[in-house]
Write a structure and sequence with these properties.
mainly alpha; about 0% strand
């Protein structure tokens, strides 16, 4: 599966789940205080998906940045855009998860995953932006 298909599938899954955020927030507030450490709640799943998308964005952004420096041309443009978009979607997903969480870490609300998605998404956005600006700035030599 190519990176483009992976990011498109992850983006459609996250965007499709935005409409379900309100019922998930209502369900999260109705959960009991006794949530196990390994119990996969809806909020934890949302945060984990956003964090994994952000991690993929960081990897793609790092590869695009290396290509833009190495090729001195239009080498990492698609990867840079993919990393930026993946980071943006992860930041939105992580922020939304943190906004609807009504407890701290360990309550089943996905606070740790949301924070990880937010931070990794910001890193992916910066890497994508750097790779895009470097590939645009350095033209073909000759």
């Amino acid at each position: 599966m190519s990176v483009r298909h992976l990011l498109a599938a992850a983006a459609s899954a996250l965007i499709g789940g935005i409409g379900l955020a309100t019922p998930a927030a209502a369900q999260a507030s109705a959960q009991s205080a006794q949530v196990g450490a390994y119990t996969l709640t809806a909020a934890r799943f949302w945060a984990t998906a956003a964090a994994l998308l952000a991690l993929a964005g960081v990897v793609v952004g790092r590869l695009a940045l290396a290509r833009s420096v190495r090729r001195m041309g239009n080498g990492g443009t698609k990867g840079a855009i993919a990393a930026f978009v993946a980071g943006l979607i992860a930041v939105v997903g992580g922020t939304l998860n943190l906004a609807v969480a009504d407890g701290g870490p360990g309550t089943g609300n996905g606070v740790v995953g949301g924070a990880a998605a937010l931070m990794l998404g910001l890193i992916a956005m910066v890497l994508g932006w750097l790779a895009r600006s470097r590939s645009r700035r350095t033209g073909p030599t000759g």
